[in-house]
């Protein structure tokens, strides 16, 4: 288990969640608010973050 990929994956999940919430209009005060692009890119980034964590946890050296 490597701590750097796990930390990076966790950051990707948090940023993806924030992008999603901004894109859907739940977080106000940004140029990203109510923009469909961020509502789509957010879950994609979060999904990559989950995948990175899964790979990091399964990898054994």
From TrEMBL:
This is Integral membrane protein. The chain crosses the membrane at residues 7-25, 37-57. It comes from Nocardioides glacieisoli. Keywords: Membrane, Transmembrane, Transmembrane helix.
């Amino acid at each position: 288990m490597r701590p750097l990929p796990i930390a990076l994956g966790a950051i990707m999940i948090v940023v993806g969640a924030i992008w999603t919430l901004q894109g859907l209009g739940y977080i106000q005060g940004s140029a990203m608010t109510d923009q469909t692009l961020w509502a789509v890119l957010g879950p994609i980034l979060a999904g990559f973050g989950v995948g990175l964590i899964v790979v990091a946890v399964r990898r054994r050296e």
